[in-house]
Design a protein that fits this description.
Blueprint (H helix, E strand, L loop, with lengths): L4 E2 L10 E4 L14 E4 L8 H13 L6 E4 L2 H11 L1 E3 L2 H6 L4 E5 L5 H9 L3 E3 L1 H8 L6 E4 L3 H7 L6 E2 L5 H5 L17 E4 L5 H11 L5 E4 L2 H7 L15
Parallel strand pairs: 1-2, 2-3, 3-4, 7-11, 8-9, 8-10, 10-11
Antiparallel strand pairs: 4-6, 5-6
Helix pairs in contact: 4-8
GO molecular function: thiosulfate-cyanide sulfurtransferase activity
InterPro entries: Rhodanese-like_dom (IPR001763), Rhodanese-like_dom_sf (IPR036873)
C-alpha cells in the first residue's frame, strides 16, 4: 500500500490513501482509493457534518477497501450504517492505535453512483452559469420533487423531469415527452439537490442514446451557495 497522502485532487488520482479532514470539501468527487482515513479533527465538527464526512469517505472506497479512524466508539456505531466489518489482524497492525474497518463486497448506492459518473460529464455551478450565458446553452433538466423546487427555487430556463420518470419524459420513443423535446446530440445538464441522484439520472439518459450529458456537482444547493440566482418553478407540464 502506498503511503502517499492527498485530498484526492486531480494530482492525487493515483494516490492509495484519501485523507478526509474537517476542512475537506465534501462536494468534490475523485477517483477511488485503497484506504480512506478520517482524521482526528473531524471529531470537532457538528454531528451531521461529521456523519457526512464518513459517508463522503465511503463514496470513494471500492468493495474490500479500508476505512481508518482514531475514534473506535464512533466507527463501531456507524459500522452497520456504512456496511463495514472489522478488518483482520494484519490491517489493524498496520494502523496501530486506530480503528480499522473494511468495506464489505455488497454493491451499495455509492458503487452505482461511481459507475454512473464514469459515463457522464460533471460541471461546477460556475461552469454551468458560464455555459448558460453562452451562445449554445445546455438544457438544464431538474429532477427534484415539486416540494424541493418550491422550497429552494429553480435555475432559470430549466425544465422539470422528476428522477423517477426522467427517461420517460425525454425519450422520443415515449408518447408523453416533455414539450422541450431535446434531440440526442443536444447538451443536457441534469440537476438535483446535492449532485448524487442527478448522476444516476444522467447515466440513464446516456444509456438511451443522449450523447452530451453532464450533471451539476453539488446540485442546486451548491448553485445557491455560489450566490447564483434561482427563480420560482413552473409545474404546468405535470398535467401532461
Amino acid at each position: 500500500m502506498s503511503d502517499r497522502r492527498g485530498d484526492g485532487g486531480p494530482g492525487d488520482a493515483a494516490a492509495a490513501l484519501l485523507c478526509v479532514t474537517a476542512a475537506t470539501d465534501l462536494t468534490r468527487q475523485h477517483a477511488r482509493f485503497d484506504v480512506a482515513e478520517i482524521t482526528a479533527d473531524v471529531a470537532t465538527l457538528p454531528p451531521e457534518r461529521r456523519r457526512a464526512a464518513f459517508h463522503y469517505a465511503m463514496q470513494h472506497l471500492p468493495p474490500g477497501a479500508l476505512l481508518v479512524h482514531a475514534d473506535v466508539a464512533e466507527l463501531v456505531e456507524l459500522a452497520a450504517e456504512l456496511d463495514l466489518v472489522e478488518a483482520g489482524v494484519a490491517d489493524r497492525t498496520a494502523w496501530p492505535g486506530r480503528c480499522v474497518w473494511r468495506r464489505t463486497q455488497r454493491t451499495t448506492i455509492h458503487d452505482l453512483v461511481h459507475e454512473a459518473r464514469a459515463q457522464i460529464g460533471r460541471v461546477t455551478p460556475a461552469d454551468l452559469a458560464a455555459r448558460l450565458a453562452g451562445t449554445h446553452p445546455p438544457l438544464v433538466v431538474d429532477t427534484r420533487t415539486p416540494t424541493d423546487r418550491i422550497r429552494f427555487g429553480v435555475i432559470a430556463g430549466s425544465i422539470h423531469a422528476p428522477s423517477t420518470v426522467v427517461a420517460f419524459h425525454l425519450d422520443p420513443a415515449n408518447g408523453y415527452r416533455h414539450p422541450a423535446r431535446p434531440s440526442f446530440d443536444d447538451p443536457i445538464v441534469v440537476v438535483c439537490n446535492g449532485g448524487y441522484s442527478s448522476s444516476l439520472a444522467a447515466a440513464h439518459l446516456v444509456r438511451i442514446g443522449f450523447t452530451d450529458v453532464a450533471d451539476l456537482i453539488g446540485g442546486v444547493h451548491a448553485w445557491r451557495a455560489a450566490g447564483l440566482p434561482v427563480t420560482e418553478p413552473d409545474h404546468s407540464h405535470l398535467d401532461l
